[in-house]
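re: that chain from earlier
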Amino acid sequence: MSRTTMTKKKLTKKKLTTLLAMAAIAPLAFSACSAGGAGGSETSGEGADTLTILDYYNNEPDKTLVQAALDKCATDLGVTIERESVPGKDLIQKVLQRASSKTLPDVLMLDNPDVQEIAATGGLSPMSDYDVDTSGFAPGILEAATYEGEVYGLAPAVNTLGLFYNTELLAAAGIEPPTTWDELKAAAAALTVGDQYGMAFSAIATYEGAWQFLPFMWTNGGDETDLGSPEVTEALQLIVDLVESGSASSSVINWSQADVKDQFVAGKAAMMINGPWQIPALMETPDVTWDSVQIPVNKAGQTPVAPLGGEVWTVPVTGDDEKQATAAKFVECISDDENQLALSEARYLVPTKEALAEEYVEKVPTMKSFTEQVANARSRTGQLGEEWPEAATVIYTAMQLALTGQVPVEDAFEQAMAG
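^ sequence. v structure.
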């Protein structure tokens, strides 16, 4: 999830559109000039047995785990790969630089909310150009990778949010894991004792805060296209109630998701909203026993809907048809059944092919609730496409306004939209 400000995001988008368009056109123009009137292919296809790859898995253990999947596909396809990994915050800038120098990678990994924006520039190739089979993938991930009816990439594994709870604390208090908002508020209140809060979540003024609000908003029937609706306001009232009642700390306005995990591990929170990427850290604290369930719903019978996180592998337009076709096969390979299961198991993610869910949960029982959640997870860009960042900014601004008491809950989104 990007931490970029809206101003910078819009400037980057303008530059990206121009530079990617130039990068895509230049090889074609050069090829046409050098064809000597012979017609035929636009490009020579030389070097199609080597693929360059750009991603942001620059930290361990993810860097090595992903490398294993890449190496497998390189062997399967008989190609050599040249991989570059950069910090997540630097990826888009790196794409800009490489577009400017006409050295876009053959395979580009993108955070899923960025796919539509970059596809809109014309800098990515649709999977349909290469007859890539996109059937069987969870609807949310295909939605995230779709722009104007075309799928521009595939994701081998994804993540989402759930409700973690300390099993010992809930059992001692005779409390079942909450499934509704009323149960959540009651459980959080009962579990708030001394310096231990019942509930922890992130309401920080970044996309991370907006991401954590989405399950409550979407599950309640709220929509980013109408942030002033009663359903959205009701979801905001829930988190304000948790803080004002003392069941959650007022510090949630400053907590990242990593901070929330630290509170849970330290025994300062009995429950937390967080994602499965925190599981390795939880495994390192065996004195904290935990489990997870899907995000509670407002009323019994509603379907829990959470945001979809994860990366999409895409094929940039480089002007080399043969290489792009090979890159598409590589993208297809990285998302095959074997890689989906291997990456998901190693990195506590969820396979994106729905038919793999049961087999995966049998292998990794701790991922059961997240696997169930992904089945109904939603893309952040599904409704607004490349305009999603603006809505995310309004969401976390409204959260801050309401949680700090600057404006009443019913006025928070209107105030946030007014700037």
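The first helix runs from residue 6 to 34.
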